[in-house]
Structure formats: structure tokens, C-alpha cells
């Protein structure tokens, strides 16, 4: 996938006081979202917006576009 995380989101959230336990208890994110973040899988724009709110950052601080290498099939 050409979009990937630049940071470990759960670690960054923990640094500002939001452990995965606290995120579940406060009903910020459910277990499914936390699992997706743990495995560096994509999440919805709503989740991304909430992460940005909690970390006080922009989406570009969290995600980056990496061009996929094209295999030369013409050979």
C-alpha cells in the first residue's frame, strides 16, 4: 500500500497519556480500531481526525505516501 504510517500511533498516543486501555475505557476507539493501529492497517478518516486531535498534529505528521516500485515487465 503506498500510504503508510510515519510513526507508531499507539506509542505516540501513550506518550501524551492515552494508553490503549484508556482509549477503550473512554470509548475513544474500540478494540477493532486499536488492533488496526497496532498492525499498521488503514483506518477511517474519522479515526484519523481523532488521532490528530489527540496528538495535536496534522495527518501529514502521521502518514506518508511512498511510491511503489514498478517491476519492469517489458524485458
What secondary-structure arrangement, pairings included, does this model have?
Elements: E1 3-5, H1 9-15, H2 20-25, H3 31-38, H4 45-55, E2 63-65
Antiparallel strand pairs: 1-2
Q: In short, what is this structure?
A:
This protein has 75 residues and is mainly α. The protein has four helices and two strands.
Describe this entry's structure for a reader:
The structure is a single chain. With 75 residues, the chain is mostly helical. The protein has helices at 9-15, 20-25, 31-38, 45-55, and strands at 3-5, 63-65. Strands 1-2 form a two-stranded antiparallel sheet. The protein is globular and about 40 Å long. It starts with a strand and ends in a 10-residue tail after the last strand.
Strand content: 5-15%
Largest sheet features: 2 strands, antiparallel
Mean pLDDT score: 91
User: Could you estimate the helical fraction of the residues in percent?
Assistant: 40-55%
List keywords for this structure.
75 residues; mainly alpha; 2 strands; 43% helix; two-stranded antiparallel ribbon
